[in-house]
Amino acid sequence: MVSPRPLARLLPRLAPYRGKLIVAFICLVVAAAAGLVFPLVIGYLLDAAFELKDRGALDRIALALLAIFAVQGLMNFVQVYLLSSTTERIVAKLREDTFAHLINLSPAFFTERRTGELTSRLSSDLALLQSLLGTWISELSRQILFLVGGIAMLTITNPGLTLTTLAVVPIVVTAAIFFGRALRKASTGVQDRIASAMGTADEAFASIRTVQSFTREPIETQRFRSLLDGVVSAAVYRAKLRAGFFGVVGFVAFASVVAVLWQGGAQVLAGRLTAGALVSFLFYALTVAAAVGALASLFGNFQEAVGAAQRVFELLDSRATVADPVSPVPLARPVRGAVSLEHLNFRYGADSPAVLTDVSLEVAPGEVIALVGRSGAGKTTLASLVPRFWDVTSGSISLDGQDVRTLALADLRGAIGIVPQEPTLFSGTVGENIAYARADASLHDIEAAARAAHAWEFIERLPDGLATLVGERGVKLSGGQRQRIAIARMFLKNPAVVILDEATSSLDSESEQLVEAALTRLLQHRTTIIIAHRLSTVRRAHRVIVMDQGRIVEQGSHDELISLGGLYSSLYARQFGEVVLPA
């Protein structure tokens, strides 16, 4: 049987709207009762016309039917409006909570998931849940009322014919259990394939320049088509299951109506039943048969919705590998920026090789250090551990003498600024992108930060200045302009520690000079960790830390390391073509 757990977890989200839901349910009951009265009144109407031949009774019954339909229409309107508006709010809040949960998960989570898959769950899976709450619950309640009420009226009208009508119930229940399990599994497979296809599309769109520069459009289209073929195959299989399910249930349900009509007709011919009573009974039998068929259909939809709910709650159950401590210690103010690494070891997973081994390092407040080494030496990993994007496997990292694991993430990361090699801009305005560092920044603050970062020179030449839209990921700006906006963010944030990931490595000479000037000003009196890919940038560092295979193998000034004739000297000679001999 289907586990009720995913749907049970939705119940607390319904609590704030219990008043509206109760009113909607009352309206639903009244509308269903009106529908159940209809067959009975029809029977009276036919008997009045054909048996009693009473025109006055016929007129009164017709007016009564109109009144019943008016009440039913009003109740349906109120019920649908209340349930639909409430469902919109519930699903919007669930979507918001899911996004808020995801955005707070550790980077490790996103290294294992594609963004297209996550957005698919936020959209298509929650759309299925919205359908569940908006129509499924309402229809389930309605059809249960019709089923129970119809059976009650059948029993009152003619107990013998009732047994004939209800003979189909065990068959329908068996079919529902058999097909339901398969439908749930098939529906989950469809949603998984849709998420995979959307992930591929998102990846291609995000890398559109690379795709087009290599003229890979046909290949990417073929990849997407292949994934869509998988979606179609899974959906067709699900459609076969649903078709078989509805075909069996429909045949069995309406076969019972034929049996009732045949048996009831025999009773009319024998004089044991009036024509009006038979028609009333037949209407009730159709109501019960339709309710059974509708419940079977709803059961299939239920399986699909439960699969979607499980996928959404899987995301909500994901736990951050890096989280706030239970009782965070306040970060001492002002932050001086002293960073200490003690016997630090790190690996990305229990079965992964060691990335850092026994790394110890002291960085004084205001000191500028450069991390250099071959690709894969562990430079970027080391810098990522300071703001706790990952947690150390063993050892410790301290900021101003406080273990970073005892600090609230907001305090820790608020004291650290990161200027990446490829800065990320959002599809808003230039001003909004600078103000991303501080939500309460005034226009004066934003302009001052832009001037300090040497960004104002190009911003004031833009069509709308700070209000100019930058496009998705800042596509309308050059690399140097994006980099200067990223530096402006740092001026606005005013962190005590700056992590600089070779911010000038991909710029032209003019942009590089402007960015260098901005960085020189930014790094004054701030503790700075530079991840140096080009050794020409290390001259601004007070100390160079040379890493190899996850260990610190050399450290000192540029000149000291050159004279040492070790790994740094070798890397420098290889990069600049100079032969450096040990002193």
The major sheet is characterized as: 6 strands, mixed
Based on the coordinates given, report the CATH architecture of the largest domain.
Answer: Up-down Bundle
Mean pLDDT: 80
Query: Can you tell me the CATH class of the largest domain?
Result: Mainly Alpha
Question: Explain this structure to me?
Answer:
By secondary structure, this protein is of the alpha/beta class. It has two domains: 313 residues, ABC transporter transmembrane region fold, CATH 1.20.1560; 238 residues, 3-Layer(aba) Sandwich (Rossmann fold), CATH 3.40.50. It is 63% helix and 9% strand. The chain has 20 helices and ten strands. Strands 6-7-8-3-9-10 form a six-stranded mixed beta sheet, sandwiched between helices. Strands 2-1-4-5 form a four-stranded antiparallel beta sheet, covered by helices on one side. α10 packs antiparallel against α11. The chain is elongated.
